[in-house]
Amino acid sequence: MLEVAQLSKVYGPDPAARPAVADLTFDVAAREFVCILGSSGCGKTTMLRCLAGLEPVTSGHVRLRDEVVSGPPREMAFVFQDYSRSLYPWMTVERNVAFPLRYKGVPKQEARAATQEALEAVGLGGRGRSYPWQLSGGMQQRVAIARALAYRPQILLMDEPFASVDAQTRAGLEDLLLDVWQRYEITVLFVTHDIDEAVYLADRVLVLRAPAHVALTVEVDLPRPRNQLTTKGHPDFGRLRSELLAALSPAGTPQ
Amino acid sequence: MVSLARVSAGRGSDLGLKVAGIAVALLLVELCTRSGLLPERWFPPAGEIYAEFFRLAGGRPLWVEIGRTLLGWATGLGLGAVLAVPIGMALGSSRTAYRLSRVVIEFCRPVPPVALIPLTVLVYGTDLQTKTFLVAFAVFWPMLFQTIYGVQDVDPVAIDTARAYGLGTFARFRTVVLPSATPYIATGLRISSSIALILAITEELVVGTPGLGRAIIVAQSAGDPTRMYALIIATGLLGWALNAAFGALERRVLSWHPAQRQEVAR
Amino acid sequence: MTRTAIGTAAGGRTRPAAGGGTRRWGRALRLLALQLVVPVVLLAGIWWWTGQAGSFYFPPASEVARYFADLWLFERVGGDVLPSLGRMFAGYAIAVVVGMVLGTALGLSRLLRTAADPVVQFLRALPPPALIPFALLLFGAGDWSKVFIIALGTVWPILLNTIDGVRGVESQLLDAARSFQIPAGARLTRIVLPAATPRIFAGMRTSLSIAIILMVVSEMVASDNGIGYFVLESQRSFAIPEMWTGIVLLGVLGFVLNWLFVVMEARVLFWHRGLKGNSDA
């Protein structure tokens, strides 16, 4: 599905400058849920922007379904961390979701149906006429997810989407995401700095170290469907958690 | 990181770009006059205007006119500020006073100051007093509103802190209220300085009080467009210099807190 | 000296809110009365003072009111008010269009912005009335010289605010649009411009008051109709009550136009207000 090979990114004209992404290589299979885990400042966001075609790469390449990514691809949708700055405050929730569809060439009737369906999938069926700023933070991020879903992507890139909501809301959003991932049969690449979140959501966790490269790959074979109580209480959950914690800490040993 | 890299790469060529921009503008003006797009009798070649401008700048009369305009500008701006700042402080710190005066203020603020020109001429005649009054009336409102907002914007926690440390009324005002309101007042002064210049020039044009404005209209009616344009250029440069000076003052006052940097009273 | 002005303000804020509905109504009424006390007293004072003072410059308010009704309801509306307003709106409309188009171009292109900076700084610092003689040479004493001056004087606040607004658009709003493959044209009209409207409106509001000033001044310098012309002519022929009606009319016009603008702004920018209200809470 997604293939990243020897990807490097250096900001600015100086080739000797410290790269943000260096020799990053990994694959994501179709319908896989991959979490990218890294501490802040390790180049996660830069990497994601390169994958999304928002930032030109310095060397290496990104392929989406065997096609080299050079600009934002049609099969991809992006959910940003800061929902308040990615939803358009002058449009209603409905229009926010429907807006990209118009330029994708979706007929009006179909766009309306897709919008309604996506909003219902995230539990906001009745809030289409509201404005984003009238909703809570968690609801706004659900609108952003609905917008991505209505776009019918094959792959969803998410940049720490739940980092700015409270813990309670966050658990709800995680379950919602797993649910739509199954229902819409999409591929998800999810960036986070939260170990528990990564283990809970993913099929596979990639640990990133600065400058962004894959330091460790951990397969998560916890049973699905996952559940906030039973999954997090599963003995393997603790094992994976410690393994990742060790990989993340600078010396390579658990703190 | 991205933007920084771009800025440092672009800085060297900035000056060149600006010079190029000025050159293009001057060239356009020159082309308009040389090509006869504008009738030559009224629009002399730009080169002659610049020559006239430098000739004027070398002599005394231009500076006398500038001095006269600046005098009206300064007395009006000073009077307006001296009245507006204390009143603004009072209205900003007392809710009751603010409520009592709100309707009157909201009614008076949008009154165009130039509407008062005929009345002022009747009462004060055609000298400096008229200019001062009109400028003062025009700058009073922006100064007043900037001061009110500045005082109202004082962080209540800062006041409580000052209280907790046992600071008296006067000390509290001096150490907390005044420093917080100062950036707003500085912004008000910058806005007001250009309004004051507009009013001073206007008054000279309409009423005929000596100054740059009158010099411009005298040159026009004397059939000397070259001098008229040279004087207009001088007026523009004066406005630009005042803007730059007050902009610098504002930046100095605001340097401690860039977030304060907003125009609330337009 | 223990009860300071600041102290009372803070005290007023922490005073517990009235409990019952009647008390709340009472409070609202008291507040209204408080706000109206000063204007009513002031008006009554002016009425009484001008009535008994017998001043030549300050004729009785009742007389001014009588003249006002005679002149402006609606005898001179077609001859003076409409030409004035027409020229003002024409100049203002030109300034809005030109300011927004140029401002968007300069806001989007760093190259253009840098190159235009010195020229823009000079032109916006030039007091617009200084250009009235130039406009008279260019267009003669008719309507167009006034429209030109009004447009030239009001374009700068709109231009500069549009530049700032366009530059200040959150980069993530644009990234989101790009990631959904919104074409560049639609990104400009559907994202950049709406996001810049709060700033553009701030500029338009400043420009509106400049437009009124320039409307009056241009009529005072050279015109044969318009409110500015009427006021100055009345003064020159010592028709003092007539002059006062013109001044009052200009004040009312300034107030009404400003009020209309605020109403329109609140409608167009309702989302901005909502957004700000939310982030404050």
Automatic annotation (TrEMBL), chain A:
Keyword Calcium listed: no
Pfam families: ABC_tran
Stored InterPro entries: AAA+_ATPase (IPR003593), ABC_transporter-like_ATP-bd (IPR003439), ABC_transporter-like_CS (IPR017871), ABC_transporter_ATP-bind (IPR050166), P-loop_NTPase (IPR027417)
Domain ABC transporter, chain residue ranges per copy: 2-235
Keywords: ATP-binding, Nucleotide-binding, Transport
One GO MF term attached to the UniProt entry: ATP binding
Gene3D superfamilies tied to this protein: P-loop containing nucleotide triphosphate hydrolases (3.40.50.300)
Protein's name according to its UniProt entry: NitT/TauT family transport system ATP-binding protein
From TrEMBL, chain B:
Keyword vocabulary terms for this entry: Cell membrane, Membrane, Transmembrane, Transmembrane helix, Transport
One Pfam family per UniProt: BPD_transp_1
ABC transmembrane type-1 domain: residues covered: 66-250
Assigned GO CC terms: plasma membrane
Entry annotated with the keyword Cell membrane: yes
A biological process from GO: transmembrane transport
Family per similarity comment: Belongs to the binding-protein-dependent transport system permease family.
Name assigned to this protein: ABC-type nitrate/sulfonate/bicarbonate transport system, permease component
Source species of the chain: Nonomuraea jiangxiensis
Lineage: Bacteria, Bacillati, Actinomycetota, Actinomycetes, Streptosporangiales
UniProtKB/TrEMBL annotation, chain C:
The family this protein is said to belong to: Belongs to the binding-protein-dependent transport system permease family.
Pfam families: BPD_transp_1
PANTHER family: ABC TRANSPORTER PERMEASE PROTEIN MJ0413-RELATED (PTHR30151:SF0), ALKANE SULFONATE ABC TRANSPORTER-RELATED, MEMBRANE SUBUNIT (PTHR30151)
Protein name: ABC-type nitrate/sulfonate/bicarbonate transport system, permease component
Gene Ontology CC entries for this record: plasma membrane
Organism: Nonomuraea jiangxiensis
Renumbered residue ranges of the record's region Disordered: 1-22
Membrane topology label: Multi-pass membrane protein
Main subcellular location of this protein, as a coarse class: membrane
Sequence ranges assigned to domain ABC transmembrane type-1 in this UniProt record: 81-261
Keyword Acetylation: no
UniProt-listed PROSITE patterns: ABC_TM1
Low complexity: compositionally biased ranges: 1-17
Gene3D superfamilies: MetI-like
Subcellular location: Cell membrane
